[in-house]
Design goal:
The chain has 128 residues and is of the alpha+beta class. It has one domain: Pnp Oxidase, Chain A. It has three helices and seven strands. A hairpin with a 5-residue loop joins strand 1 and strand 2.
Length: 128
Amino acid sequence: MLDERARDLARGKNFAAFTTLLPDGRPSTHVMWVDADDEHVLINTEVGRQKYRNVTSDPRVVVTVIDADSPYHYAEVRGRVTRTVTGADARAHIDRLSEKYVGGPYSNRIETERVILEITPERVRYNG
C-alpha cells in the first residue's frame, strides 16, 4: 500500500525520476510525469519505448518524486511494476496528466500505444 505522504507527492504537480534496468543490468533514469492511486505509483509511457521494454523483462523500478516547492523534500519508492493498463484508460490517463502539468490535453504524437505502469511499493524512503 502506498502511504499518504508518497501518494500526495505523486498526485501533486511534481516530477519524478523513474529508474528501470536495461537488459545488461545498467540503470536508466528518465524525468517523468507521475501519478498515484490509493495503492500504486503510476507512470504513463508508450509500449514502444525502452523503459517499457525494460520493465517487461525486469519489473524492479525506483520512482523518486521530488517536491516542486522544496526539492530537498522527496519520496523514493522502490518497487515492482505489477500491472499494466493499455487502451482507452491509458489514453485518458495521459490527458489527465497533461492537464495537471501543462493545463491542456496531451498534444505529443503517440507513436505506439499508451500504457500505465502500476508500481507496487516495496520500500519507501523520505527526505525532508
